[in-house]
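User: Let's play a game. I give you a shape written as tokens, and you guess the letters that built it. Ready? Here's round one.
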């Protein structure tokens, strides 16, 4: 297991560097942001551009970019959106809003999705199973931003239950903030709930028809006891790793959701950086999403070995 993890970390580092280099070159091929001539930060930014080799070949620029990060943890300053401010400080200030919205979505979606999946499996080949299976496929096929517009129209415009936009400030546990977070959380949750429902239903249906389940029933266990004690434990081999994958999927979907509901998070910051040609903010956001995605894939693979002892990661036999 340790050898497998070390190999995966090495591969992750290689993939991370390749993706970062590609994004760096692509963003540097675009013209740099135009600086205001009378601002006191303009001269400072021009000097930083010269020090970072903006007129040098891309590989030289990339080396200087990595050198500043490794030696000084210096991601640069904003050249457009937050003129002259430190990029890392901006990013850290935006991160809590993104994490709060995504964590609430996952926490809400896991029990609901698994519960619906168990219900569909226990009601196999009934109208409940057919309805949930059809609804699941429809929900998965629709992008999250469509649900955002539906949530805004129904719950915000028609029923007036929630505000259209997320409340301002950083008090993320106040009642006003919690109420304003519900619309983006619901918008992100539909696809995740449908994914867990489909996975749980497929795995549990297969397990319920296996021989060891029939043996458990013949020993006197009720259907509910056999399902909870044995069937669900086997299903979790697939469900638990899927939680990490769904978390990354939500992070990607929140790029658009944050813009619709004015969530002051990393996703909205990334889109604004692309539109504003703010190189440094874009690179930091890209590195963040890439690192999270690669780390999640490693956690998913390693978790199989801990959940099911029969699985030996990296084994050739």
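Assistant: Ready! My guess for every position:
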């Amino acid at each position: 297991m340790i050898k497998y993890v070390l190999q995966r970390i090495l591969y992750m580092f290689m993939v991370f560097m390749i993706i970062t280099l590609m994004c760096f070159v692509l963003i540097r091929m675009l013209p740099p942001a135009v600086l205001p001539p009378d601002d006191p930060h303009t001269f400072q930014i021009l000097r930083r551009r010269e020090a970072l080799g903006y007129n040098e070949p891309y590989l030289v620029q990339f080396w200087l970019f990595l050198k500043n990060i490794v030696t000084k943890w210096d991601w640069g300053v904003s050249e457009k959106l937050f003129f002259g401010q430190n990029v890392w400080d901006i990013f850290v200030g935006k991160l809590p809003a993104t994490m709060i919205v995504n964590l609430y979505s996952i926490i809400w979606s896991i029990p609901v999705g698994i519960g619906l999946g168990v219900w569909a499996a226990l009601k196999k080949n009934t109208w409940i199973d057919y309805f949930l299976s059809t609804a699941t496929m429809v929900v998965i096929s629709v992008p999250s931003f469509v649900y955002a517009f539906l949530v805004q129209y129904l719950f915000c415009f028609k029923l007036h239950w929630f505000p259209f936009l997320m409340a301002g400030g950083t008090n993320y546990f106040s009642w006003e903030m919690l109420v304003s977070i519900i619309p983006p959380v619901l918008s992100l949750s539909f696809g995740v709930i449908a994914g867990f429902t489909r996975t749980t239903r497929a795995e549990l249906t297969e397990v319920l028809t296996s021989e060891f389940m029939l043996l458990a029933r013949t020993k006197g266990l009720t259907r509910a006891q056999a399902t909870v004690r044995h069937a669900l434990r086997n299903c979790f081999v697939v469900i638990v790793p899927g939680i990490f994958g769904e978390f990354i999927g939500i992070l990607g979907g929140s790029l658009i959701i944050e813009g619709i509901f004015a969530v002051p998070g990393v996703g909205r910051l990334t889109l604004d950086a692309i539109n504003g040609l703010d190189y440094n903010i874009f690179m930091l956001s890209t590195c963040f999403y890439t690192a999270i995605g690669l780390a999640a894939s490693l956690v998913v693979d390693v978790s199989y070995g801990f959940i099911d002892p029969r699985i030996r990661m990296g084994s050739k036999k």
